[in-house]
Design goal:
With about 400 residues, the protein is α/β, with parallel strands linked by helices. It is built from 15 helices and twelve strands. The strands form two sheets. It has a ten-stranded parallel β-sheet with strand order 1-2-3-4-5-6-8-10-11-12. Strands 7-9 form a two-stranded parallel ribbon.
């Protein structure tokens, strides 16, 4: 990572920035990252042409993959416009970060960089860290641009930025109209300044509504918030259950002050990952959510941990679905009593036996399977299994 900065002595600074400028302009392949730190005065005090040239150089560069703007609250707004006009042509930058903008509302800067956010096909991640002047207008401008892209970002991260319910709504609501462009990972982190985060139930309900959109592409969500309780958890569980959203893999709700989650509070998510109301509901449950809790890799009581583990370990989601159907409806108390196979059409019987054989094979073969579930399993439930759930079994066989 190379630096444009005002921290060095004047002569060293001038030489350093000239060198980096020429490397950017010449498309130096070794210049993969660029940090512009505290660039507010010399040697660019009255050099609009120089700033415009830097913007065009970045725009034409095909090697820079990451750019960081830090402590640039005093950077002239006209310079931001000139810089953004050139940068919008760039097609190589994958990550852009903004940090410590204490004297300037980011909405003004985002408005200039909007086309870069919307049109750059290589852009994958945006990071905002320790910006005390974050505002709702800037959040809305950002999400409106991101919701018009050709494909979703890999991630947007907010580290130690002030955040409240209104700002959460400003950022998340624009994605409701185009949920397939929701960033795949969204993080609201509070490391050193927890008191700047004030997100409550209203903000979480807005996020849950977006997750309730079946087109939502969000895979990982981490929220550091003041307080977490059972009702907040249920907001997300209900949304995921109704929407059949199969994108979300990670949900972390980390309380900064207190948690009043009951002993089995997280278990409401077992209906999300294994809805036992019917065979169809079990098969259509969420088979992607695997990390859930107040921190990563949190253990849960009952069957929830087992179901999350299956989701995590197996990439074949049809296999996971069949495993959940089998263990939920045809093992133990859910097992159908023995029935005669007489009268069943031979072709349908063959199809049914093929399905059961596949379940047995996926569970380690007969040597592993029968000691666990019993050797009379086929005759004990095959007929009822087919009679009650023929349509579901045909779908599962595909």
């Amino acid at each position: 990572m190379e630096f444009f900065t005002n921290n060095s002595a004047a002569d060293d600074y001038s030489n350093k920035t000239d060198e980096i400028f020429h490397r950017v302009k010449s498309n130096d392949a070794s210049l993969a990252g660029l940090t512009i730190d505290n660039l507010s005065c010399k040697p660019y005090e009255s050099s609009n042409d120089r700033i415009a040239s830097l913007g065009r150089a970045v725009g034409n560069n095909t090697c820079i993959e990451e750019i960081v703007f830090c402590r640039m609250g005093q950077f002239d707004l006209m310079w931001w416009k000139l810089l953004a006009d050139g940068m919008k042509e760039n097609r190589s930058i994958k990550k852009i970060s903004f940090g410590r903008f204490d004297d300037r509302y980011l909405s003004e800067i985002i408005s200039y960089l909007g086309l870069f956010f919307e049109m750059n096909p290589s852009l994958e991640r945006i990071v905002f860290f320790r910006n005390h002047q974050m505002d709702g207008e800037g959040m809305k401008l950002l999400s409106l641009r991101l919701s018009k892209r050709n494909r979703p970002l890999e991630g947007v991260r907010f580290d130690d930025n002030p955040m409240n319910d209104d700002m959460i709504r400003d950022f998340f609501e624009p994605f409701q109209n185009n949920a397939r462009l929701t960033p795949k990972a969204i993080e609201l982190n509070s490391y050193d300044e927890p008191l700047v985060v004030d997100v409550g139930r209203d903000g979480l309900e807005c996020i849950a509504n977006l997750l309730g959109n079946s087109d939502c592409t969000m895979e990982n969500l981490r929220l550091d918030i003041r307080h977490v309780d059972d009702d907040m958890i249920k907001l997300f569980a209900d949304a995921l259950t109704k929407s059949k959203n199969n994108s979300l893999k990670t949900l972390v709700l980390k309380p900064l002050e207190k948690s009043t989650i009951s002993k089995n509070g997280w278990n409401v998510f077992d209906t999300v990952v294994c809805n036992n109301s019917s065979v169809d509901a079990t098969y259509d449950s969420n088979h992607t959510l695997s990390l859930l809790g107040q921190w990563h890799y949190q253990s849960h009581p009952g069957l929830l941990s087992q179901h999350l583990c299956w989701n995590f370990l197996c990439a074949d989601k049809q296999f996971v679905a069949r495993k959940k159907v089998f263990t939920t409806h045809f093992v133990g108390s859910g097992m159908v009593s023995g029935k005669s196979l007489n009268g069943m059409e031979s072709s349908l019987l063959v199809r049914l036996i093929e399905f059961v054989d596949r379940v047995i094979e996926e569970n380690g073969g007969e040597a592993s399977f029968f000691p666990r579930y019993g050797r009379n399993l086929r005759s004990s439930f095959l007929y009822q299994l087919f009679r009650r759930h023929h349509n579901s079994l045909c779908k599962m066989k595909k």
